[in-house]
Amino acid sequence: MQMPEPDQEVLARRSEIVDALRAIVPGEGVIADTREMRPYESDGLTAYRTVPMIVVLPETVAQVAAVLKYCHENGVKVVPRGSGTSLSGGALPLADGVLLGLGKFNRILDIDFDNRTVTAQPGVTNLGITTAVQHEGFYYAPDPSSQIACSIGGNVAENSGGVHCLKYGLTTNNILGLEMVTVEGEIMRLGGKHLDSEGYDLMGLMTGSEGLLAVVTEVTVRILKKPASLRALLLGFPTSEQAGACVAAIIGAGIIPGGMEMMDNPAINAAEDFVNAGYPREAGALLIVELDGPEVEVDTLIERVREIAEANGSTTLRVSDSEEERNAFWAGRKAAFPAVGRISPDYMCMDGTIPRRQLPEILTRMTRMSEKYGLRVANVFHAGDGNLHPLILFDANQPGELDRAEAFGADILKACVELGGVLTGEHGVGVEKRDLMPEMFSETDLNQQMRVKCAWDPKGLLNPGKVFPTLHRCAELGRMHIHRGQLPFPDIPRF
């Protein structure tokens, strides 16, 4: 994995840049000591690390705007960072860039129960929004496994999902308004508390843009009333293929659960060792199906799901009888990632999406890939929407294992695309999937996406090196012409 070569002219001006940024963000808002910047060298994708040139921690929107304006005028790259939980390297710093941390933007600004909205700064945690409104029986629906730590601004950047997004949608379906700052330092507002707005869907464009277009400084989200009844079923199956077939049958029957998650045997046992959730250790695969709504509706749906599960070979079937038991069912799933960390020195969490009907096929292929690369894999799925999270287990201290894990992961994502799916469901492209983008998009597709990037960031200063496998200058984008074997603009980094 290659990143753009550091700009030596910018590095030569480092002291000057530090002084200028300290004038904008005084006190302890600028970190320039290498040792003190070390905690920012990576995000959740720790396989790749770079110490940033400078870390800036603004406290106000005006400071964010001033920092971006200065960097734009002086040709300095900027990498926005939320809580650093990204699993695709989206917040990987640059050796010649400013890392703009938004952790101090951690206040909820407005709670409006009448309009069912919350307005928060980007550093507020995902779970923090639900915590702020649950006393009135409300909650925020998208719930990534990292919700205790991940920030709502980062959720916007990656269009994050979670276990309840099958029925209630991802981040893009649950935000109503954004305040953001462009690379030129202009403060903009999109949307608000109202349901829809006229004109181009710029908010949709910003959601999932991975910090390449602007820096989000405020988010307005919709909150939902907690359902009258919530119950979960724990379904065990002899094989992952049978569990996958059950998923397809449930959706095919017109049942849309609040959440439907799947774990294979290695993940089941790791989670059970970690939280003692009462999972069937002998099961080849486990489904957690949560149903919500009026009590009579939930009771009816439970019986329908029970029949479908039995028809697909279910060997274990438990229905939660209390809120405590329902939470216990979910505890293992929510803790699956740290649990797997106990059975392997390292693991790489992938993120691809396939059509639900292809679940059995992708599982069969992953078994063959595991044998090919000599590495174990534990599977955790947002099964209802076909979003896969294979955890490839390896030991980075063993020569060659990291390379094999990366190749294994690339093959999984290529298979997702081949089966009619996409490279990412919620983690984003970042650097992890950047070089796989041509598997899914043609050169024409990618050039068109880069034109959008150029419209917002003509100098390419915001989070460069992410998402796009070839770095173009905006002036020559789409005008590439090879004359007598000579490549124009040979000095442009292409990686």
Shape: globular
Estimated structural class? alpha+beta
Q: What is the strand tally?
A: 19
Number of domains: 5
Biggest beta sheet summary: 8 strands, antiparallel
> What is the CATH architecture descriptor of the largest domain?
2-Layer Sandwich
Model regions low in confidence, pLDDT < 50 over at least 5 residues: none
Rg over C-alpha atoms, rounded to the nearest angstrom: 23 Å
Question: What's the CATH C level of the largest domain?
Answer: Alpha Beta
CATH topology of the largest domain: Uridine Diphospho-n-acetylenolpyruvylglucosamine Reductase, domain 3
Mean pLDDT: 92
Count of DSSP H/I helices? 17
Measured by DSSP, the beta-strand proportion falls in 15-25%
Q: Share of helix among residues? A: 25-40%
Alpha-carbon distance between the termini? 8 Å
List keywords for this structure.
single chain, 495 residues, alpha+beta, Uridine Diphospho-n-acetylenolpyruvylglucosamine Reductase, domain 2, Uridine Diphospho-n-acetylenolpyruvylglucosamine Reductase, domain 3, Alpha-Beta Plaits, 5 domains, eight-stranded antiparallel β-sheet, five-stranded antiparallel β-sheet, 17 helices, 19 strands, oxidoreductase
Short summary of the structure?
The protein is of the alpha+beta class and 495 residues long. It has helices at 8-12, 14-24, 34-37, 61-73, 126-133, 152-158, 165-168, 202-206, 240-252, 265-275, 295-311, 323-334, 336-340, 359-373, 401-418, 437-440, 443-456, and strands at 30-31, 54-56, 77-81, 97-101, 108-112, 117-120, 138-139, 175-181, 187-191, 215-222, 224-225, 229-237, 259-264, 285-293, 316-319, 346-349, 352-353, 377-382, 387-394.
